[in-house]
Design a protein that fits this description.
Elements lengths: L15 H12 L19 E6 L5 H12 L3 E6 L11 H10 L2 E8 L4 H6 L7 E7 L5 H15 L6 E5 L6 H12 L4 E5 L15 E3 L2 H4 L5 E4 L15 H8 L14 E3 L12 H4 L6 H20 L1
Parallel strand pairs: 1-2, 1-3, 3-4, 5-6, 5-8, 6-7, 8-9
Helix pairs in contact: 1-5, 1-10, 2-10, 5-6, 5-10
The structure holds N-carbamoyl-L-aspartate.
């Protein structure tokens, strides 16, 4: 029996049905050609508040647009200019935002576990969506990635999917690995220098490579990750040039993968480091499609939690 979920905090702990229901709801927002996302008024009268304590371009904007496309009221707080900079505690800030009748609270925070902690304090009518917590999880990114893979490649269980780069610091990688596992993907690989692998990587029970050539061999999908300098302690990689040479995806290395491989990246991309211009802008790239699909998937998540 499928459990109704109240908050979206992580992919870990979801049931496969939760994922499938959200993805199929997302597909209903597209027009017949799967190109344009249609608006409706399903969330008319609902207030959706965005609290981003870390920078964001795509995630914050698509959450705002998703709520607007569903007819909700949208409140986006600029945390640098809010009272948190006057010393107000996070719990007090959230209590005040919830008192404004916020039914959907989207939060991004640099400390892992913050959305889960808050979910224990918000009023009954507030649903929390984790938009990224430190190195923890980024569940809506994983859902939009799964949507994009399914749309372009079909049944995920039959695919070879490689996740490449700074796995250690990446909440996107963590959520994607949980999602791929839940959806039954039989061939999941991670490719990273040893220093950029999390200590619990063995618990995922997936193939680990430190060479691109072996790791992306015959892959159907390659998910590239950004080197997360803001979370990096020094000395984890020898130099950016070495990293780029060994792990950067360019038009030479991509030939090891299947001829019709799809390349994804959650953004922001570091052109010329983890991905070359030809690959980022080339025919294999789904990077901008991910952003578009993210809008529909975030609409679906909001509707799913509320109804
Ligand atoms: C990611 C994030 O913030 O976790 N970006 C995103 O949400 N699209 C990945 C990153 O910052 O590298």
């Amino acid at each position: 029996m499928n459990e109704k979920i109240k908050h979206l905090i992580s992919i870990k702990g979801l049931e496969v049905n939760n994922i499938n229901e959200i993805l199929s709801l997302a597909s209903t927002y597209f027009d017949r050609d799967n190109k344009y996302i249609l608006s409706n008024n399903k969330l008319a009268g609902v207030t959706c508040s965005n609290l981003f304590f870390e920078n964001s371009t795509r995630t914050k904007s698509t959450f705002e647009l998703a709520a607007q496309k569903l007819g909700a009221h949208v409140l986006s707080l600029h945390m640098a200019s809010s009272s948190s900079s006057k010393g107000e505690s996070l719990l007090d800030t959230v209590a005040n935002i919830c008192a404004m009748q916020t039914q959907i609270l989207v939060i991004r925070h640099n400390e892992e576990g913050t959305p889960l902690m808050l979910s224990k304090h918000v009023p009954e009518y507030t649903h929390i969506i984790n938009a990224g917590d430190g190195r923890g999880e980024h569940p809506t990114q994983a859902l939009l990635d799964m949507y994009t893979i399914k749309l372009n490649k079909g049944d995920i269980s039959k695919l070879s999917v490689a996740v490449v780069g700074d796995i250690l610091h990446s909440r996107v990688a963590r959520s994607n690995l949980y999602a791929l596992k839940l959806l039954g993907c039989q061939d999941i690989r991670v490719i990273a220098p040893k220093n950029l692998l999390p200590f619990d990587i063995d618990t995922f029970n997936i193939k680990v490579f430190d060479s691109m050539e072996n790791g992306i061999k015959d892959a159907d999908v390659i998910i590239m990750l950004r080197i997360q300098n803001e979370r990096m302690t020094s000395g984890l990689i020898s130099s950016i040039q070495d990293y780029q040479r060994q792990y950067g995806l360019d038009s030479i290395k991509i030939k090891y993968a299947k001829h019709n491989v799809s390349v994804m990246h959650p953004g922001p991309i570091n052109r010329g480091i983890e991905i070359s211009n030809e690959v980022a802008d080339g025919p294999h790239s789904l990077i901008l499609q991910q952003v578009r699909n993210g809008l529909a998937v975030r609409m679906a998540v909001m509707e799913y939690l509320l109804f």
